[in-house]
Fold this protein.
Amino acid sequence: MPDHDWYFDDFEVGDVHETMGRTVTEADVVNFVTFGGIFEEIFINAEYAKNNSLFRGRVAPVLLTLVFAEGLYVQTGHTHKGRAFLGLEELRMTAPVFCGDTIHVEVAVESARRSQGRPNDGILAMRHKVLNQNGVVVMSYKTTRMLACRPSVQPTGTEPELTADGASR
C-alpha cells in the first residue's frame, strides 16, 4: 500500500516508478474471456492454442494484460488523487503473455503541466512498460491523467480571525 498521498506536485518528468508483480493464471484468462465474451479458440481451447496458434500455448488476451497493468499501477496509490483518465495511446503488444507469466510495470513520467482550465489540477503523461519475469517488454502504452494538486496550506499566523459567532473577519 502507498506510504503517502500522491498529488500532481509529487511527480517530475523523468521519474520512473515500478509496480509489484502479478502472475497471470489460467483462471484469470478463463474468467476474463467469459466476462468479456471473447470466445476465440486461442483463448478457450488449450489443444488448439498448443497445436495451431503462433505461440504454441495458452496466452492471455491483450486487453487482460492491459487491465492487469493498470490495476498494478493503481495499487501504487499514484492514481488515488486522480480527477480524470484522459487518454490511452500507442498501445503495442510486443510479446505474448502466457499463463504462468509474472508481469510488472515500469511507469515513467514523460510530461507534467498544470491544467489550463482547472488551476488546482495537473496533467501527467506517462509511458508504461509491462515486463515479464524475464525482463522482456510484453506491452507498452502511454496514458494521460488529470490529478489534483496538493492543497495549499496557509502559513502559520495567517489564519483568519473569528468573531464571537464564528464568522471570519
User: Anything to note?
Assistant: The two ends are 42 Å apart (CA to CA). Helices lie at 26-36, 41-44, 46-52, 62-74. The mean pLDDT is 89. Strands lie at 16-18, 22-23, 82-93, 102-114, 121-131, 137-148.
